[in-house]
Structure formats: C-alpha cells, structure tokens
Amino acid sequence: MKSSILFAFTLSLSLPAWAQAQSEAATSTEEAEATEALLSAEPRPADELPEKVTLPPPVEQAPAVKIRTVDNGDVVEEYRVNGRLTMVKVKPRNAPEYTLLDTNGDGRLDKKDAEGPVAPVYWTLYEWN
C-alpha cells in the first residue's frame, strides 16, 4: 500500500516538470519556424512617394501691434490678428495699465449691457518675459 501512494506522489511531482519541458520545446520550435519564415521572405519594395505634396494651410499671422501716444501722454497699444482688433492695452501716464478685449471676435471692444455702460477692464498685476 505504501508503494502505490509513494508512486502516485512521485508521479504528481514529475508531471509539471515534464509538461513544462514539452511546452518549452514547442515554443522554441515555433520561434525557429517564425524566424526562418522572416529570413526567407523576399524584401518588400519601398513605398513610392507622392508626386504632388500638399502644404498645410497658412498659420494665422502673429498679432500686429500698433503703438501710439496720445496728446496727454497715454500710450495705447492696439493688437490686431488678420486685420481685426482683438485687444487694446492702455498705459496712462499717471495711472496703472489696463487692457480692453474683444471677447466675441467682431472687432469691437465689448460692453456688457447688464453691467451698464462700463467696458470690461482687465488690470495687469504682474508681467514677465
């Protein structure tokens, strides 16, 4: 009785090693066949280049800046993109700098009716290069 139990126990321990060896042999055979197929294949011709190359659409121009000085000493910078006014920076002689923006792209500096006759003003707190 002891010998049959010992035989079954030994067989169960040796089966995983045998299965692993068979699996490794099959894998190495498959890898060898794949490598041989790649090496024996004829080289593929290079893809032909298109005759006409189309260029991407032109990039928007950088904002054109027009700087002018008003009679009272204020400096006004007008920023335009593709001919449309997008932003105005005003640097008063005796006051902090402020900025007016065109928020909807119509070329006019916006006023909000809900806020009354006040144009949106943005103060520059800090600026760096």
From TrEMBL:
Biased composition (Low complexity): 24-42
Lineage: Bacteria, Pseudomonadati, Pseudomonadota, Gammaproteobacteria, Lysobacterales
Range of residues in the leader sequence: 1-19
Region (Disordered): 24-60
Record-linked Pfam families: DUF2782
UniProt keyword list: Signal
Protein name: DUF2782 domain-containing protein
Database matches in Gene3D superfamilies: Protein of unknown function DUF2782
Species this protein is from: Pseudomarimonas arenosa
